[in-house]
Amino acid sequence: HDRLVLLPSAPLLKRLSTVHAGPKAAPPQAVSVNSLPPPSSPLKEAARISKWGRMLEVRSRDRGGNAESWHVKPSKAHKLRQRVYKGIPDRWRNAAWETLMNDFSKSGHEVVVRLKEYYYQEIDKPSSYDIQIDLDVPRTINGHILFHTRYGLGQRSLFHVLHSFSLRCSQCGYVQGMGPIAATLLTYFEPERVYAALSRLHDAYSMHTIFSPGFPGLLEAIYVQERIMQSKMPGVYAALRKHMISTTSYATKWYITLFANSVPFQTQLRLWDAFLLEGQDVFVAAAIAVIWVYRDHITSNSANFETVLSLLSSVFVPEDDDALLFWIEHLLGDKKLRKQMSNWRQEWTQLVRSGKDRGVLL
């Protein structure tokens, strides 16, 4: 979607709590933004580079003596979560993301080596998805210099990764949402490691349920999102029901692409830092953050189906990435709410098993 809107920081200064409908005279539209912000070096980046350098240490090296895997020093482990939410320095993302995936999936370098071998085994096999992948590749984050050139190195690498990954799971195969995820990973890893990363996202981070036919993981995330909205923002929930706006109509692309097409690239990287640490709940929290910021626009007397859906289908440009990430950090730090989120996921599973899930979602 080409429409850019500002995601202001002021609403994020107040933590998630039970609120009712906002002022009825509130405008239904958010403030538009003319262009994406230019890339810039975050404040205190040099200091954070130094801190991450002291926090991570080499676990193993290749035959040439180059670092091939890392881990967090035990004495610094208590600082990891706070530093992830402050933003991983870009030059450390390769090592940090690998470390976070190792920790979350409880696997190590040996698994990565084995997955790399699978990548090379699959690369020459035919896939029934190859034609569609070839059509989608040039449309995938083509604003990034790595993917500018048709059949250039970046696009060929993206094709090879998606081709090999389409053969990994017969249920998931290939869906379009995989492209932006693989492309983002390619900006930090070589193709065989991207395949390994996608495999671990599929297995350990439950992306299998997001991409399986019927998108069961997507519907589960939406159910959790709606329960939080209903309990904390009943006025917003009522307004969406009144305007007959289904959550799938605007939030599907949020969860399918892990917000890759809904926020600026630098914001997406910050969300992924937290996702690789915490798991799927990060994107439910990000979705709630968006709704929280625009709650007055949604409940406005002037709001209607078109204004609300257009707003929630926009690209969100945060006024301050730190404010957004700290709000998400605080939400996910609420142990009571995290327990409720887990219970709602189990509740959805039971609804599906009993065939009572129809009509439950907006």
UniProtKB/TrEMBL annotation:
SUPFAM superfamilies: Ypt/Rab-GAP domain of gyp1p. Residues 23-44 are annotated as: Disordered. Residues 87-279 form the Rab-GAP TBC domain. It comes from the Eukaryota. GO terms for molecular function: GTPase activator activity; small GTPase binding. InterPro entries: Rab-GAP-TBC_dom, Rab-GAP_TBC_sf, Rab_GAP_TBC_domain. This is Rab-GAP TBC domain-containing protein. It comes from Pisolithus tinctorius Marx 270. The lineage of its organism: Eukaryota, Fungi, Dikarya, Basidiomycota, Agaricomycotina.
